[in-house]
Amino acid sequence: MPRIVACGRRQKAYEDFKHAHVEGKDEVLLLVDSEEEVKTLNSSWGHLASSDQWKKPPNAQDEQCHLMVQCMESWFLADPAKLASYFGQKFQQTALPANPKIEKIPKRDVLEGLKKATRDCQKGRYGKGAHSFEILEELDPELVAKASPFAGRFLEALREQGAKGA
After folding, report:
1. Distances (CA, A) of 109 to 73, 74, 158
2. Residues 6+ apart with CB under 8 A from 160
3. Per residue in 11-55, pLDDT tens?
4. 83-96: per-residue pLDDT in tens?
5. Is the distance from CB of 154 to CB of 74 less than 8 angstroms?
6. Measuring CA to CA, which residue among 164, 161, 145 is closest to residue 153?
7. Which parts of the chain are beta strand (E)?
């Protein structure tokens, strides 16, 4: 299976991707928040060129660039049962944005909804560093892929990577 490396901030992830791609040691994928709505599923490099002025590295393929639209936390909304289970009894699911098109929900609304939904939880209010990767590990990837075409595209790329390594 592919190895996942959390790089921290978006710019660092991009720089690490460029370095690994140029080194050619592994077939690498870039996965970052889009920070805003993305209009076309297959335009990840185009989106990043427009929003961040990032250039696609030489010989990089479109299939190597993936976006969490609009932020990683949007994926959480695809599996509210796991989210409720993670935070426990006082989790207020009704505080979350209800739009099933999770990629259309502005980042600000996703994060505010999570803060409100978790304000009385024993684990405390949602915090990216405190909770994000634990929640991400528990999500049902098929539910996320169904709710997010960009997540589906990323999951397919991971499957292809895994098949190549088998």
Report:
1. 10, 10, 29
2. none
3. 999 999 999 998 886 689 999 999 999 988 778 999 999 999 999
4. 999 999 999 999 99
5. no
6. 145
7. 30-33, 65-68
